[in-house]
Amino acid sequence: MRSRSAIASVTLALTSFLILGGGAATAWADDAALSVPVTATDSGATAWMLTSTALVLLMVPGLAMFYGGLVRTKNVIGTMMHSFVAMAIIGVMWSVCGYAMAFGPSVLGGWCGWDSGKFMLGGLDGSVVKPMGVAVPEYVFAMFQGKFAVITPALIAGAIAERVRFRGYCVLIALWGVLVYNPLAHWVWAGDGFLFNMGAIDFAGGTVVHISAGISALVMALYLGARKGYPGTAMQPNNLVMTLMGAGLLWVGWFGFNAGSAVQSDNLTARALTVTQVAAATGALAWILIEALRHRKATSLGLCSGILAGLVAITPAAGAVGVGGAIALGAAASVLCYFAIILKTRLGYDDTLDVFGIHGAAGIFGALALSLFILNDSVTTKTWSEQLAIQATAVGIAIAYSAVCSIILVVLVDKTLGLRLDDTREMAGMDHALHGEHGYGLLNLN
């Protein structure tokens, strides 16, 4: 009863903020909102945004396959459910309050945004926004941004895979989305966000998505502790074929992630798509070469890791760098992430699927290193050293905020609903113990 009362109290507090806090912003919301009173839209940009929205959503089942193939057979369904349920929970919450919090005018001293007119996406019929100066229906923009909100907590699940209760995980990502993701998105991407006004560059989510997810994943993995038997017991992936397919879907979907963030259909979009492709390919090639030099063989898992390292590193920089910068970022990110994973092994903490080792490390690196490769003054008029200082400030704030909020939330959920699986159910596997299913229709597989 106490656990239910605690969760009910948190829910009531959040609801009160969303309803009552919104009233204070209503009087001046129109002055700061993105929507503009025009009806004409750019059909080409709208079509591209619709396509990009679908591509980003495709990344979530891609992530489910990527993660699902890497865990043991007894946990494949439970692990994939972590990605799919994020589409349900965050999909609803983004529509109810997330978009209003992320892209409404600043409230509470700029901690987040709020526009009561956008509560439950109200007032979007016929509304047009002009991100990047191009008019698109606000519904499309809201749904595009919502897919970023969905995949970010799903990324975190990889660090705590194979040892969390489904109920606790669901509550955790709901709270995390409201209290961590939405404010960060407002700071970085909203027109009156303080990091946006500072001049921080995050084209498609290096800070908002990958750094926040990577740092939060590390905090949660450290708090929950290692899986039973780790690292002494071998815990082999159950299906690397599925992991390869998942990585391929992520690569394809990432074009919507990065090139879609250009909104328009012009040279910026084309360049963002190009550098995304180049960075991913370079990251994959670099990882293959590292493995060839160190082990004289290339692995499929290494190839997938290199792809992701390159994609993550180019995400904040996709609108600012050219092909040369993409090659440099992709190669360096692969090297950095390779040794970050080795360091994890030596330190002994159990980030199950290397969320911090890939997303955290490459996200931080990409957000900082883009300062060295900015093409021209179309993005910033500052020198590379000035921009680097701004980027470092934004990265530091994102790290600190994500870490502090995540430890509070993971402790709250674990002490009330419970988050860590008990030994018996962990050994039985999440599929049978939590969902009453088996991924491959077979019993007693590890």
Tags for this model:
single chain; 446 residues; mainly alpha; Ammonium transporter fold; three-stranded antiparallel β-sheet; two-stranded antiparallel ribbon; 16 helices; 5 strands; disordered N terminus
Structural description of this entry:
- With 446 residues, the chain is mostly helical.
- The protein has a single domain, classed as Ammonium transporter AmtB like domains (Ammonium transporter fold, Orthogonal Bundle), CATH 1.10.3430.
- Helix content is 67%, strand content 2%.
- The chain contains 16 helices and five strands.
- It has helices at residues 2-26, 29-32, 43-70, 76-103, 138-156, 166-189, 194-198, 206-224, 240-258, 267-295, 300-314, 323-347, 355-369, 384-416, 423-428, 430-435; strands spanning 35-36, 106-107, 112-113, 128-129, 136-137.
- Strands 1-4-5 form a three-stranded antiparallel β-sheet.
- The relative contact order is 0.15.
What's the CATH architecture name? Orthogonal Bundle
Overall residue-averaged pLDDT value: 90
Straight-line distance between termini? 35 Å
Instruction: Report the order of strands and helices.
Output: HHEHHEEEEHHHHHHHHHHHH
Largest sheet: 3 strands, antiparallel
The strand order across the widest sheet is: 1-4-5
- The percent range for strand residues is under 5%
CATH C-level class: Mainly Alpha
Classified in CATH, the superfamily is Ammonium transporter AmtB like domains
The helix fraction, in percent, is 55-70%
Gross morphology is globular
Integer tally of domains? 1
Rg estimate, integer Å: 21 Å
* CATH fold category name: Ammonium transporter fold
Separate helix tally: 16
Which spans of ≥5 residues are poorly predicted at pLDDT below 50? 1-13, 15-38
